[in-house]
Amino acid sequence: xxxxxxxxxxxxxxxxxxxxxxxxxxxxxxxxxxxxxxxxxxxxxxxxxxxxxxxxxxxxxxxxxxxxxxxxxxxxxxxxxxxxxxxxxxxxxxxxxxxxxxxxxxxxxxxxxxxxxxxxxxxxxxxxxxxxxxxxxxxxxxxxxxxxxxxxxxxxxxxxxxxxxxxxxxxxxxxxxxxxxxxxxxxxxxxxxxxxxxxxxxxxxxxxxxxxxxxxxxxxxxxxxxxxxxxxxxxxxxxxxxxxxxxxxxxxxxxxxxxxxxxxxxxxxxxxxxxxxxxxxxxxxxxxxxxxxxxxxxxxxxxxxxxxxxxxxxxxxxxxxx
Length: 322
Description:
Strand order of the largest sheet: 2-1-3-4-5-10
Low-confidence stretches: none
Strand content: 5-15%
CATH superfamily of the domain at 9-171 and 216-243 and 279-294: NAD(P)-binding Rossmann-like Domain
Structural class: alpha/beta
Distance between the termini: 39 Å
Radius of gyration: 19 Å
Number of helices: 10
CATH architecture of the domain at 9-171 and 216-243 and 279-294: 3-Layer(aba) Sandwich
Mean pLDDT: 95
């Protein structure tokens, strides 16, 4: 059944984060009575007592769970235990207490990192269990995939209505531009702009550039999440993407061009490439959500670069975020 967000109380975990701020805006535009964003300083969602207190004080009609602990390849490699525990604990406590209070709807945002390392391209939702994820992403990806299993089990046994989404790598304004913990696009934008302005003669990039990725503009992703909240009532996995694949080499060259960096690109092949290819089949999103991405890739990159240039001082002083 359609779920009308008008006059509803909506908790958005991670609502102050990158995608979260856009989800909150769109939920408010749908007429929600209140959008509650739990702050980590007040609610450590990895602890059960904090989650119990959140449900008691917020009294939500729906929870959209976006909060995650994750980074780029380097951060994922350095923090496998931390990322597995944090993401698993948050999902366990939030879904269990949704059951206890009789929550009408729970929306879980997963990750493309849950897919097996050698999934045929384009990735179909039916491929999720056909192998083990790429090693540096596995702890994070498996924890997020376990949340889908939990949601499915809780719907079958307890009737908890839910939705489960698998977005590709996101990019756009308000992303994390910290060079150690960010994903590839914000890291490259910052690296190229700083190299351009300091007169460096080269930038260094990880791997060989042969791996390919698909990227989704953050506002398109947020609209997909809100659409799923409104129309999905079972946690079948649904991909959110563009079905457009680009190699990291081509991505770097495009960002170099758009930022105006004039130097050389050097590849450090001793560093990992990550999963060889990522590109999603998004036919289920079109069928089930009546959703598709609207922002073209180069246009989205231009918007993101312009935002970074405008907010650069705040980003640098804020540890990667404005």
